[in-house]
Specification:
CATH superfamily of one domain: Tetratricopeptide repeat domain
Mean pLDDT: 93
Strand order of the largest sheet: 1-2-3-4-5
Helix content: 55-70%
Order of helices and strands: HHHHHHHHHHHHHHHHHHEHHEEEE
Distance between the termini: 55 Å
CATH class of one domain: Mainly Alpha
CATH architecture of one domain: Alpha Horseshoe
Strand content: 5-15%
Number of helices: 20
Largest sheet: 5 strands, antiparallel
């Protein structure tokens, strides 16, 4: 999950609440407030022991105050303050919240602002500490989901410690300001960066209960769930990944990356199956990729994946349609032309298969497999003459060694031979491949790729085979 962390502004200056006339208050309320104020003064002086004792007494007194005089919202704010000083962020957030709600109900905006300022002071410190810890972890070990090498283990451990600090601080910040979207999102981010997508998802699901309809939280949840699904796929937990992706696409029927992930899971699982089950998974992979392409038709790779999956599933018509979609976007994609040629041949559309494969060869004449494919197309038509032409090219490219100097090799042809006559009429070929045939012995194949023709001569300069892959050649 890409990190998106947001630091809060500079911590606000802690404000002392206006305690008012202590004599008019419930004694526990007044006494608790006095303990908070005295504790803060001792803290400033460095009297840590007295400070801790006084804050604990403040909690005791103000807790009794809360049960005896619920209307004193200012005292409730002090109770939140005392808990915050003792690092008890859950109770602090609870009492700050009650004080703010009660004060707002009474319409005392001035005192509510003071209570909010105190709460936000403690929230800001913990929130910013959490963000800083995430950034430290990322700097130490950027991809925490990657297993560390021996040399990286120390950095990994340091990052782990920082992430744990981030989780602690952001959780405290969450308690102090329940329902704060930015805090909740970054807490989920910390979990996700650690690869703990279950907890990240849980945080975000709960956050959407607290803050229903928040689009940023919804978007973060979608991202976390997609990363969780991808983690299952990477871990080769294919059945779980398929189940999870299937659930996700139901919830987000326009999620291109989700369909792509589902396709990847089915495609990978197909490799572990046999026969009909194998083809069924390839078909489902093709369906998922095709859906992704229908949603993002600018990405020809999605159509390529769909076509390949359908081809493996023997769904020739579907495969042909997807290969043609690829070629609309990338008409000179030699690999797509090659695959389409194979599909067309299996569909017995031989004339078009020849044209398509010939085009693939013209784009990438160094690819020997294309010649073998074209030979297979002719073989299926029992056209042994043309099949032999293409097989000679394949064999020359498969086992031949390029002559160091093609021009010098051609000039060495014996005068009056077919080789010499070819050199005189055709010029120097781009390549000369030196190879041996069990029956014909030592051979040279002169490749004129630009002219889409090649000539194979024996050691005496006699023409053994001409190979021509011009368009429309029968």
């Amino acid at each position: 999950m890409k990190s998106r962390v947001f630091a809060a502004g500079t911590a606000a200056v802690l404000c002392l609440l206006l305690a008012g006339n202590a004599l008019a208050r419930n004694p526990h309320c007044a006494g608790g407030i006095q303990y908070v104020m005295q504790g803060l003064r001792d803290k400033e002086k460095g009297n840590t022991e007295d400070y801790q004792r006084e804050m604990n007494k403040a909690v005791d007194q103000l807790s009794m105050c809360a049960t005896e005089d619920e209307a004193d919202f200012e005292a409730l704010g002090y109770l939140g303050w005392a808990y915050a000083e003792l690092d008890s962020c859950g109770p602090a957030g609870e009492w700050f919240g009650k004080a703010i709600a009660a004060g707002s109900a009474k319409g005392d905006k001035k005192k509510v602002v003071l209570i909010e300022t105190n709460r936000d002071h403690y929230w800001t410190m913990r929130y910013n500490d959490g963000i800083a810890a995430i950034q430290t972890a990322q700097s130490a070990y950027p991809d925490f989901t990657k297993k560390p090498t021996d040399d990286e283990k120390e950095l990994y451990a340091a990052a782990k410690t920082s992430y744990e600090t981030a989780l602690l601080k952001l959780t405290q910040a969450k308690f102090l300001r329940p329902g704060h979207p930015q805090t909740l999102r970054n807490l989920a981010t910390a979990y996700a960066l650690m690869g703990d997508f279950d907890n990240a998802e849980s945080v975000l699901r709960n956050a959407l209960v607290e803050v229903p309809g928040d689009t940023n939280l919804s978007s973060a949840l979608t991202t976390v769930r997609a990363n969780k699904a991808n983690g299952l796929l990477v871990a080769n937990k294919l059945d779980e990944a398929i189940s999870y992706y299937t659930e996700l696409v139901k919830q987000d029927p326009n999620g291109v990356d989700l369909y792509m992930g589902l396709g990847n899971a089915y495609f990978t699982r197909a490799g572990n199956k046999q026969d009909a089950a194998k083809k069924a998974d390839f078909k489902l992979a093709g369906d998922a990729y095709a859906k992704a392409y229908s949603l993002r038709d600018t990405d020809a790779n999605l159509a390529f994946n769909a076509a390949l999956a359908y081809q493996n599933a023997s769904e020739l018509g579907l495969a042909e349609a997807q290969w043609r979609a690829v070629l609309v976007k990338s008409p000179n994609d030699a690999d797509a032309l090659s695959q389409l040629g194979s599909v067309l041949a299996d569909e017995k559309k031989f004339a078009e298969a020849e044209q398509v494969l010939a085009k693939a060869i013209s784009i990438k004449p160094e690819e020997k497999v294309y010649f073998r494919q074209l030979a297979a197309v002719y073989s299926k038509q029992s056209n042994n003459t043309r099949m032999t032409e293409m097989m000679f090219m394949y064999l020359a490219m498969n086992s031949g060694t390029p002559a160091p100097d093609a021009a010098a090799t051609v000039k060495g042809a014996k005068a009056g031979t077919a080789a010499a006559n070819t050199a005189a009429s055709m010029g120097t070929p781009e390549r000369v491949l030196m190879w041996t045939d069990n029956q014909a012995g030592a051979l040279q194949t002169w490749v004129y790729a630009a002219k889409k023709v090649a000539f194979t001569f024996n050691s005496a300069g006699v023409l053994v085979q001409k190979s021509d892959w011009s368009f429309g050649k029968k």
